[in-house]
From TrEMBL:
This is Peptide/nickel transport system permease protein. Residues 314-563 form the ABC transporter domain. It holds the Pfam family BPD_transp_1. Gene3D superfamilies: MetI-like, P-loop containing nucleotide triphosphate hydrolases. The chain crosses the membrane at residues 28-49, 92-115, 127-147, 153-170, 209-232, 256-277. InterPro entries: AAA+_ATPase (IPR003593), ABC_Ni/Peptide_Import (IPR050388), ABC_transporter-like_ATP-bd (IPR003439), ABC_transporter-like_CS (IPR017871), MetI-like (IPR000515), MetI-like_sf (IPR035906), Oligopep_ABC_C (IPR013563), OppC_N (IPR025966). It is a multi-pass membrane protein; Peripheral membrane protein. One of its GO terms (biological process) is peptide transport. GO terms for cellular component: plasma membrane. Residues 88-277 form the ABC transmembrane type-1 domain. GO terms for molecular function: ATP binding; ATP hydrolysis activity. Belongs to the ABC transporter superfamily. Belongs to the binding-protein-dependent transport system permease family.
Amino acid sequence: MTTVPEPAATPPAAGTSLVRSVLTSPRGAIAVAFLVLLVLACVLAPLIAPYDPLAQHLSAVRAGPSGDYWLGTDSLGRDLLSRLLHGGRSSLLGVLEAVVAQLVVAVPCGLFAGYRGGAFDRITMRVAEVVMSVPVIIILLAVLSIFDRSMTSAMIAFGVLGSAGLMRVVRGAALAAREELYVTAAELMGLSRLQVVVRHVLPRCRGVIVVQASLFAAVTLGVQTGLTFLSLGPPPPAPTWGGMVADAASVFNQDAWMLVPPGVTIALTVLAFGVLGDVVRDANAEKQAAAPRARRRRHTAPATGATPREDVLLSVRDLSVATDGEHPLALIDGVGFDIEAGETVGLVGESGSGKTMTARAVMGLLPRNCRIASGAVVFDGKPIHGLDQRAFRELRGRRIAMISQEPMAALDPSFRIGSLVAEVVRAVDDLKGAALRARVVELLRMVEIPDPEGVARRFPHQISGGMAQRVAIAMALAGRPELLIADEPTTALDVTVQAEILDLLRSLQRENHMAILLVTHNWGVVADLCTKVVVMYAGQVVETASAADIFSRPAHPYTRALLQSSPENTPLGERIRAIPGTVPSPHEWPTGCRFASRCDLARPECTEGAIPVEALSGDRISRCIRIDALLGEEVSR
Ligand SMILES: Nc1ncnc2c1ncn2[C@@H]1O[C@H](COP(=O)(O)OP(=O)(O)OP(=O)(O)O)[C@@H](O)[C@H]1O
């Protein structure tokens, strides 16, 4: 038995492999080698520079490259190589100061904003937006004048102003990392927020941070050079790269060479930072692309692995829905299941277990006061959980349709049935006149309504409940959906009509190869139609298994109790064995197993901490740490 989530799962972006990927790329290796050599040469300038950078050699003014002056001299006979090496110290130190300032502000704020969300996130992002709209050059000029041309102050200010962009990028990466299984596992293990962020979220963001920092370094070098070019930095004769460009520019018409050493050095340094950023970005993208594949392979067996599956029609992962407002209340929590094309899956549980909320989240039709707090809903390989209502409308009725337990309530009493069905047909097919009428009759015939032309002319109050459900199904079928969500479609109908509707759904599903998510608390309906069953309790999936397994060997005490309390399983003349107690409401959910207070197998350890999902054989999963006792009891019966 494997435990899901795996507490020891490691984050994918290990720093060492990122460094290796960068160094094994020729571009990356050249950029790194250049930057390392440049930094070494500048740091060691007092030792290796051939001359004092301020020493004037008046016998060799504006001399070209020679054995004495490798890169030549300037208008005052100062050695260009020595000035370049000494000037690089302040330029590179400025870059370092700005990048460090940027990282110190942006990384913690971005990480916590993405990971925590809420008010901290909103405030941080608003502040970032304000900072991004500030005119940088004006602030820099002000800082330089206030701090007596201190380049360090200017560079720190530049880094702080530049942190807003990085903060947004880091926040995005942290938001994605928050959904990872290993982050959830770490939280379940009781790690503090700081520990989770530092150990599990930060490593995942390392790639984007390095990319942004190296690109920022390139920009900073440009800005720093610009400021010293304008003599806004250390006053002459202190050597600076910008100052050397300014000196060269003043004599450019007489001697163009003087511009070459500083110009080429600045250009190559900016290029090296840019290339380094590009290479890290590529290496990081490859790593991110490889990571989900690896995770998917590892988790194909359990139905609720870390990442949504793209090879199934509908894949729900770690879906949580909460109420809005200052004190959000989770209503469903970490729900996950898959539906293959053409498959019928039953979503079972007592009233209040979260079945309808799950179905509505899939449809993008949550109550106004609720929202998806986290998780993913992937339909036909594409995430749909973040779609806006307009995009959802393209899906709803066309590719995903829903029928509810109250068909009559869905039929407007002031329109004839034909008109109601036609309205839906027009929305999905551009049909008019005779073709429209023919399609309406065809749909009513598909749901086995006798005399469809006659029924089309009637008003809703003139038809029975069973007929109304058939009409609702006909309307749902108008867009030829690949997935039909049926929320207790037979609850309001009498027994014989129930059987007819179930027969109809089964034949429609077979003929149209349509998948069905059947929300029900009726085991008879499950046995009749479903190939797979997802059992929910108090907002969580507690068991997923094939219908055959569920009935022969339930692997969760709740499933077993639910089966035992079903009228179908109660011998004639005996009282139904109702499960004692009720489903706890969302605000009463206990820390450990939510079923423990009603479970005859519960032990103290069941209430000590969150119960992980156990992957059993095949696609079965169960959220119970007493499985062995449960299955043992089943065998000994
Ligand atoms: N708009 C809402 N705001 C707050 N809580 C809600 C809202 N709608 C439902 N709930 C709560 O969410 C939980 C799950 O409800 P849901 O309707 O999904 O359960 P269910 O299993 O479908 O029950 P039933 O079989 O009765 O439809 C319940 O505790 C319910 O009280």
